[in-house]
């Protein structure tokens, strides 16, 4: 049996160190490259931060496997054993353009079950984290269990991408939802938006396309805070593939599924 409390202490120490390195990088110059398309960016800091964790995990926890966005970890085809799912910088476009609104995200899963989750807002020094069965925190403050929210009082995180013609979803359903809620917001970092759902800053977050490293940490934190995370049809999230993701406060999750998403 893994000692999750001990692993938690180690991860938090590493996250603080990696965060300090990322903040220090603001003073230097970035090397920026495009990946799958001209707007899909990666920088030397994404790669260095991923390597920072991989080197330490390999030394400290040699039996654990690693799925990292920048592909320097293992080739993961199953959820067997302990897997660290890492996004060194979630919201790379924000990191490059704004030097804010990005986060480091880590989810640690054992046989597909989330045990530890972390989202570190590096610029604001806000660490959201959760441990299975023990709850969720922002820094040292426990997050309150989420209360049900009615649609008309909901502030939801959604990108404008999904409210215009797109290949993935009939935008008219989401346009009606956007009209009915109190407000919409878009931060450009799935991890941060999930942290905001967990802490009640957002009532829900909806996206058509998230990769496991975008949601692995956040899913755990939202669930430990009493929220619900599913696909847009209410199904279970697949931790090995890209998914549509719908994270929400309780009550609201059911209302939106029934009234808007089916
Ligand atoms: P990233 O910055 O780590 O790539 C808004 O763009 C959010 O969606 C960010 O969390 C971003 O993560 C993620 N994202 C962007 N393009 C994506 C893609 N093609 N597949 C999955 N997630 C993506
Ligand atoms: Ca990333």
Described by the principal axes of the CA atoms, the overall outline is: globular
Distance between the termini: 41 Å
Could you say which small molecules are bound to this protein? adenosine-2'-monophosphate, calcium ion
**How many DSSP E strands?**
14
CATH superfamily membership of the largest domain: Fructose-1,6-Bisphosphatase, subunit A, domain 1
Q: State the low-pLDDT regions, or none.
A: none
Assigned CATH class of the largest domain: Alpha Beta
Q: Main sheet, how many strands, which sense, barrel?
A: 7 strands, mixed
Secondary structure topology:
Elements: H1 4-25, E1 32-34, E2 41-43, H2 44-60, E3 65-68, E4 82-90, H3 92-97, E5 103-110, E6 113-121, E7 126-131, E8 135-138, E9 141-142, E10 155-158, H4 171-180, E11 183-185, H5 190-199, E12 204-210, H6 212-224, E13 228-230, E14 243-248, H7 252-261
Parallel strand pairs: 3-4, 10-11, 10-12
Antiparallel strand pairs: 1-2, 4-5, 5-6, 6-7, 7-8, 8-9, 12-14, 13-14
Helix pairs in contact: 1-2, 5-6
Bound molecules: adenosine-2'-monophosphate and calcium ion.
């Amino acid at each position: 049996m893994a000692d999750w409390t001990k692993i938690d202490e180690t991860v938090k120490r590493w996250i603080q160190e990696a965060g300090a390195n990322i903040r220090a990088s603001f003073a230097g110059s970035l090397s920026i490259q495009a990946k799958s398309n001209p707007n899909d960016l990666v920088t030397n800091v994404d790669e260095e931060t991923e390597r920072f964790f991989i080197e330490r995990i390999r030394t400290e926890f040699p039996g654990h496997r690693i799925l990292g966005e920048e592909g320097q970890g293992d080739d993961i085809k199953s959820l067997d054993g302990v897997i660290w799912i890492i996004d060194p910088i979630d919201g790379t476009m924000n990191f490059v353009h704004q030097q804010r609104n990005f986060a480091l995200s880590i989810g640690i899963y054992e046989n597909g079950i989330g045990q530890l989750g972390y989202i570190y807002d590096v610029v604001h020094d806000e660490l959201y984290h959760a441990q299975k069965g023990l709850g969720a925190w922002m820094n040292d403050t426990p997050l309150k269990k989420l209360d049900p929210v009615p649609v008309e009082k909901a502030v939801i995180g959604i990108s404008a991408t999904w409210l215009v013609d797109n290949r993935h979803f009939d935008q008219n359903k989401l346009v009606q939802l956007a009209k009915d809620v109190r407000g919409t917001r878009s931060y450009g970092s799935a991890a941060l938006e999930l942290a905001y759902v967990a802490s009640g800053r957002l009532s829900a977050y909806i996206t058509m396309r998230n990769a496991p490293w975008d949601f692995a940490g956040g899913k755990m934190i939202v669930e430990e805070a009493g929220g619900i995370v599913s696909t847009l049809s209410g199904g279970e999230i697949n931790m090995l593939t890209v998914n549509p993701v719908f994270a929400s406060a309780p009550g609201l999750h059911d209302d939106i599924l029934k009234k808007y998403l089916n």
